[in-house]
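From the methods appendix. Each design record in this collection lists the tokenized structure first, followed by the designed amino acid sequence. Records were kept in a plain field format so they could be parsed without special tools. The example shown here is representative of the layout used throughout.

RECORD:
FOLD TOKENS (297 positions):
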């Protein structure tokens, strides 16, 4: 057996086939999700290939494919529809969201097309009329933040391919019930949690200890995206793999409904969440951070 790749790495892995096959070896390219007891590699099409550790012959790390600005725009568009607040409006290529002040994401503007003082000023007025600061969710390469302007809550936007799968023990519902709300342990109003534009959202629960949300929306290029969010495991049940099993079930639900890509948005300093998603095969797509409109004007 050769050395094994690191979890989350994108590799080209060669492995030995069973006796009697027409060729002795074959290859798989994808992200490593597990190395013990077997090596699991998730391909770009969402297929999960299992290889016995002793059958691994060799591997090489394959560089991630470069992300273009258009791909960031498409993903940010789908993600904005998946968490739109309780009120939203398109304004000259910007998607403005208001959720009564609950969460930054539901109360920020996403600049998806044009960016100038005109758009920033219009967004500032829109939020001022609702009594909240004008917060801009500024994705890499879609919005340039001038040097010296303060930012907050940098997020890693991580992605992977998915396909149909099994829910397992995860239960899903169109609305969060009282138990879901209790386990979530955050004061986010139900109308904010359930809001979605031109898509579908469900709430998953596992073992009475873990909850999460997944929203299925479509990007302008036709990609059907699954956005996992609001994942929480109660303190007494952590380190038992519940978050992983919950997320696997939510992605299986989305894959069964035609989603081919998935994303998560993780605050940079949330090391535990980042490690979880890396182990699941998510890799960095781009970064985003929040900036106040008043600091730009």
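DESIGN:
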């Amino acid at each position: 057996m050769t050395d094994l790749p690191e979890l989350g790495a994108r590799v080209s892995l060669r492995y030995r086939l069973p006796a009697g096959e027409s060729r002795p070896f074959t290859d798989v390219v994808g992200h490593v999700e597990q190395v013990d007891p077997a090596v699991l590699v998730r391909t770009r099409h969402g297929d999960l290939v299992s290889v016995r550790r002793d059958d691994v012959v060799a591997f090489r790390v394959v560089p991630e494919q470069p992300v273009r600005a258009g791909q960031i725009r498409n993903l940010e568009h789908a993600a904005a529809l998946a968490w739109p607040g309780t009120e939203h409006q398109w304004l000259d290529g910007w998607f403005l969201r208001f959720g009564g002040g609950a969460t930054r994401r539901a109360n920020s503007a996403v600049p998806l097309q044009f960016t100038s003082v005109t758009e920033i000023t219009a967004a500032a007025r829109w939020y001022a009329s609702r009594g909240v600061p004008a917060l801009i969710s500024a994705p890499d390469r879609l919005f340039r933040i001038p040097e010296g302007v303060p930012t907050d809550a940098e997020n890693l936007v991580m992605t992977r391919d998915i396909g149909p799968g099994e829910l397992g023990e995860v239960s899903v519902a169109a609305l969060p019930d009282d138990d879901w709300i209790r386990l979530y342990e955050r004061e986010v109003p139900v109308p904010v949690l359930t809001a979605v534009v031109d898509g579908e959202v469900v709430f998953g629960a596992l073992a009475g200890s873990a909850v999460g949300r997944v929203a299925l929306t479509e990007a302008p290029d036709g990609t059907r995206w699954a956005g996992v969010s609001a994942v929480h495991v109660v303190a007494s049940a952590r380190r038992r793999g519940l978050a992983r099993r919950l997320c696997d079930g939510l992605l299986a639900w989305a894959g069964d409904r035609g989603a081919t890509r998935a994303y998560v948005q993780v605050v940079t300093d949330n090391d535990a969440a980042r490690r979880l998603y890396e182990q699941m095969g998510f890799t960095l797509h781009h970064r985003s951070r929040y900036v106040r409109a008043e600091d730009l004007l």
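APPENDIX NOTE: The chain has three domains: 10-61, 69-154+289-296, 158-285.
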